[in-house]
Design brief:
This protein has helices spanning 3-11, 55-63, 76-82; strands at residues 15-16, 18-24, 27-33, 36-40, 45-51, 65-70, 96-98, 101-103, 109-121, 124-136, 142-145, 148-151. It has 156 residues and is of the alpha+beta class.
């Protein structure tokens, strides 16, 4: 099967939109991702999947920690920025901090983690994080389906 067919099939699964954030040498970095999952309740573990060629891959190995910021439907510009879709537009992001990790203010939820395992799988690495802190806010999620952003009410 070809890559396009695989991508089209995977795109049929509606997901939330997250930004993975970390800090290296006092500089904050972010990457939009929808490859996130909760793994375990006891201990509290989550996993993100990052392409081995992505800049974030080496940054996570250096920092040893990350935050998963669940975006609200009003934070679509942040998703686009960290997905590299707004390169020519000036955009300043002020980060907060949770458990020593940079986080996006007003996200629907934020999970701060220390990396406890990393598994190379195909052209990605699965970074398993032990949850060190959580923050939850009110709002509606930003969703992604069939290659485009969606809002919860569009699925109702």
């Amino acid at each position: 099967m070809d890559d396009r067919l695989f991508r089209d099939a995977m795109g049929k699964f509606a997901t939330g939109v997250t930004v993975i954030s970390t800090k290296v040498d006092e500089r904050v970095h972010g990457m939009t991702a929808n490859a996130f999952m909760s793994v375990s309740l006891n201990p509290k573990l989550v996993t993100i999947s990052v392409a081995t060629h992505a800049k974030m891959h080496s940054l996570l190995k250096q920092s040893g920690k990350y935050a998963v910021n669940f975006l609200t439907e009003d934070q679509k510009p942040l998703s686009m920025l960290f997905a590299g879709q707004m390169k020519d537009e000036p955009f300043e992001v002020d980060f907060d901090e949770l458990g020593g990790t940079p986080v996006i203010p007003d996200s629907l939820a934020v999970v701060a983690c220390d990396i406890v395992e990393a598994y190379d799988v195909g052209d990605h690495t699965l970074f398993v994080g032990a949850v060190t802190d959580i923050q939850v806010n009110e709002g509606e999620p930003l969703l992604f389906h069939a290659g485009k952003y969606s809002r919860k009410h569009e699925f109702a």
